[in-house]
Amino acid sequence: MQALFVSHSGTSPIVCSQGIPHIKELSKRGIYFTFLSFQNRTTKKLSWLIEEFKQYGIDWRTLNYWRWPFFPASLLDIIRGVFYISWLVRKKRIKVIQSRSYIPAIMAWGAKKMTGVKFIFDMRGLVPDEQVYCGNWRKSSLKYKGAKYIERKLLHSADTIVVVTETFRDYVQNVLSSGLLKNITVIHNCVDTNKFRFDPLQRNQLRSKLNLQNKFILVYGGSAVEWHLVEEMIDFFVVMKKKLLHSHFLILTYEKEKLSKIIYDKGLPQNDYTLIEAGPQEMPACLSVADLAISFIKLTFTKTIAAFPVKFAEYLAVGLPIIINSGIGGTDQLIKTNKLGVIIDGFNDENYQKAINAILDILKEGDDLRRRCREFVQKNLSLEQAVNGYEIIYRSLGK
Question: For residue range 156-214, what is the model confidence (pLDDT) as tens digits?
Fold first, then answer.
């Protein structure tokens, strides 16, 4: 079967984590992919990814990505995408398109009208509502109302809809579509457990290289977007440092400059943290350095319903217990039920201190805790499980 995966965000870290691994594995199962990404003028194809795609027989096509001004640029991308995708569908006899988020879904919808191809709307989030939260749009604006209209059209035109949490599925089914949809599948953000695993050799080598041999290391791996509460995570570390004097904050990111400014503004001493620019290839080894992971996310409407952080599975796969805040896509319940870390209920010193005391008790389990974290991911959030879910969808649509 020939299939097409469309990414408007190019080869961003999230696509490298939650898109490309899936199509590589599906390629082994007889689903042959063309990967279409929109790259800006300064972005080049990644050499390591070119080689990987060759190994899996994946045909990588690119179109230029125009960022600004937003609406005219997006409209131009959509028009070009519809015609190019329609051409690809006919040329390569593509049966199914997997469209990652809204703009690729609009392209796939247009191509469906022109060619009859089936498409998967891999939603990933509630983009119109996220634009409102970020302050880019108002709910009363024509932009928002128009985007919500298109959202409804996409939901009813897609052959299958993929969401990342059960609460997201219920919201799409009962609120956005008034109970009219039946073709919704939940596939959590998962992780390749062969790639993300604890590596004691890398741990010792990197700790020595970074001069962190005798430190208790708290790690955050992610971006500086506003809903990732980096300042609150720094505040947590400051409280932890008072309890554990040998604590050190390791920050892994692809937005080093932005995070450097946040850290500087918070006044965190240079000796207390290490900031590393880490891409998808370096992340597993870097996580092996740590003893504890953290992820605080702002409780917005969209994040409460539609968020299932990628780092949640990545941390646990390396055997790291997690400190998280409550209310994010059901992850707090998974932590509590399976004893994989500690939940905080508010961002203040008192709650931080309680969480630190609780995590110190859990950490006494040592290797048993690390093993339990990894086994949970292997049973519930492995790449294989996600691929199995996508394969069922592809096989049913490709008949």
Answer: 999 999 999 898 999 999 888 877 778 999 999 999 999 999 999 999 999 999 999 99
Residue 283 φ then ψ, to 5°: -60, -45
Span 83-112, mean pLDDT?
A: 96
Please state, in angstroms and rounded to a whole number, the distance separating the CA atoms of residues 325 and 343: 5
Residue 67 has pLDDT above 70, yes or no: no
Select the CATH number that applies to the domain covering 200-380 from these four: 3.40.1670.10, 3.40.50.2000, 3.40.50.720, 1.25.40.180: 3.40.50.2000
> Percent of the chain scored above 70 by pLDDT?
98
CB 115 within 8 A of CB 22: no
Cα(213)–Cα(209) distance, rounded to whole angstroms? 9
Token code pair at residue 197: 């695993």
Compute the average pLDDT of residues 341-366.
94
Give the position of tokens 């059209």: 153
Following DSSP, what letter does each residue of 232-254 receive, concatenated?
HHHHHHHHHHHH-TTEEEEEEES
d(CA 196, CA 16): 14
Q: Does domain 2-190+383-397 have CATH number 3.40.50.2000?
A: yes
Distance separating alpha carbons of residues 380 and 181, to the nearest angstrom = 26
Give the sign of the dihedral formed by CA 373, CA 374, CA 375, CA 378: positive
**Rounded to the nearest 5°, which phi and psi values hold at 191?**
-145, 145
Whole-number mean pLDDT of the chain? 91
Question: Whole-model pTM above 0.85?
Answer: yes
**DSSP-assigned states of every residue in 14-45:** HHHHHTHHHHHHHHHTT-EEEEEEEE-TT---
